[in-house]
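@channel sequence for tomorrow's demo:
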Amino acid sequence: MKRKNLITLLWISLVTSMFFFIFFTDEKNVENFLLTVLISFMYSFILGAGNGLINDFLNKKFPWSEATTKRAAISIVSILIANIILVYFCNYVNFVLIQKAVNTAEYFSGRYNFINWFTINVALLISAFLHARGFMEELKKTSKKEVVEQKLIAKSANAQFESLKNQLDPHFLFNSLNVLSSLIDENPRQAQKFTASMSKIYRYVLEQKDKELVTVEDEIEFAKTYCDLLKTRFEDSVDFVFDVNKEDYRRYVVPLSLQLLLENCIKHNFATSSKPLIIKVFSENDTLCIENNLQVREQMKESAGIGLSNIVQRYSLLTKKNVFIEKSEDYFKVKLPILLAKPNETSIKVEDNDKAYERAKKRVKEIKSFYGNLISYCIIIPFLIIVNLITNPKHIWFYFPMLGWGIGIVAHGMSVFAIGKNWEEKKIREILEKQDKR
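structure tokens (generated this afternoon):
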């Protein structure tokens, strides 16, 4: 047992002994005071240490954070059995061995059943308080751990997203310079025209690469400009067809995704005047599709795979919707999800983490409210029992607040752990999941 708990038990023993010595001891002398202190220490340390050891053992075997329902059931059974045994033992030592008020046969004959029953109830209330406090400490640790984990996930997602976006700038520049290098040898005049167009396109790259999302309209306009640049080099060998629904123009896609996919089409397929490469950009079921006829060229060296993997990873950090890839003998198609989210918002995963944290925070507040109610019950009801037995033992009235408040605590516990709003939240999640799948 921890030193802090031992000090707490010491103070409880002193306060209890003073209370019983002042209100229940007829002859107030040093001998009776020491006897009262001894008995109080025995009850406090045997009951307190016994329940503390049970709580520590259950914390190791059945942590609250991993098996809450199972732990609660085991705690109820274990403290009930343990406190009955400990109370009978303490009362036996007190009345038979220390005070010698009765012998063993008289003690177990039923004469002290009421005292045993009363002490067991007080012990159970104290045990419930200790276990509730243990649960709150464990919940606090778990909540802090979850908050730290959520913050790390959010920071990791943002760092990964920034890393992916930073690939775009050098990647585009490197590939554009390769095209320019080829044009200088093939057609110097076209190379000059290409350089002028590339400066305009590169300005767009610099402006958009730091954004999470851009409108489909902006991306299409940029793609058309980039296609003009490619036509400068390939002329009739490449043909581009755009057929995007106007209603999709105000929705959003990942920036520079079309440029990377158009670049992939050129990179992995050969194109000639007799067998032109036809690249189509069109809308299809809330996706933006980029499709080309398959004319695979032999790769001299293995591709770095930056383009497509970059798009897939950026979408995975922004939405649960997937990037789909279709490939047949005749064509290759990539489907980009068209999103409804506004640009420059915090990424969806980070928002989900924040919402999850807020829900967890609200849940913790509800649980803390319940255990605050339970702890108040465990403190006030024993006090009312003592007041009732001291002032008017013939008229037992403490049952009414004990039962009324007890029913209220049971209802509160059911609302927090069992019935409550859980079914509502579950239904809401089911409805949202169905809508996401449509």
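heads up for whoever presents: Confidence is low (pLDDT under 50) at residues 343-350.
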